[in-house]
Design goal:
alpha/beta; Rossmann fold; 7-stranded mixed beta sheet; 21% strand
Length: 199
């Protein structure tokens, strides 16, 4: 079942489970450190420029944002983690918001981890990768900002990510850039193969 990406709408923002939308659509959530490019990726895969608000300041997104795609799929933008300038209380609240959604949302079909391909994964990235795998889900990692590296440097860094995140057979690692359509096309290939294949 194909989705019409032109029929996309921002549904709501939530900070607690009582605010989550009441739907039966499968959900795909994006998670990663602050400023890794979650909103930019959502804009790219939907072929929109300003659909998901892109913050210039890390840690600005502090809500869970739900996007309804053609009444067939929900994309969920989770708050970024690991923002160094956030207070202990802010980080604790953020962890709670993210944890509640990941552990209790029945419609959640896949968590997609975003990491910056230019740098080694943070400890938070590694912990999140382990959490996704320990929950029984498939580990899908998009390496963002791939256009910032040359071909050889990108290949080297992708190998580094495989090692640092302990990726194994069955795990998926995809380079992603907002400057071309290849990563967006690969995202939708994944969605149709694994999320909407039985629809």
């Amino acid at each position: 079942m194909k989705v019409n990406v032109h029929k996309a709408e921002f549904l709501l923002s939530a900070v607690k489970k009582e605010h989550y939308p009441v739907t039966s659509m499968p959900e795909v959530a994006f998670i990663g450190r602050s400023n890794v490019g979650k909103s930019s990726m959502i804009n790219k895969i939907l072929n929109r420029k300003n659909f998901a608000r892109v913050s210039q300041k890390p840690g600005k997104t502090v809500t869970i944002n739900f996007y309804n795609i053609d009444d067939k799929l929900m994309l969920v933008d989770l708050p970024g983690y690991g923002y160094a300038q956030a207070s202990h209380g802010e980080r604790k609240a953020m962890t709670g918001i993210i944890g509640d959604y990941l552990s209790e949302r029945r419609q959640l079909m896949q968590v997609i981890l975003l990491v910056d391909c230019r740098h080694k994964p943070t400890q938070d990235d590694k912990d999140m990768a382990r959490a996704i795998k320990s929950s029984g889900g498939q580990l899908v990692v998009f390496a963002t900002k791939s256009d910032k590296l040359g071909k050889m440097a990108l290949e080297k860094n992708l190998e580094m990510l495989i090692e640092e995140l302990d990726l194994e057979d069955g795990d998926i690692l995809i380079p992603f850039s907002t400057q071309n359509t290849e990563g967006a096309e690969t995202f939708w290939d994944y969605i149709y193969d694994f999320i909407l294949e039985d629809e």
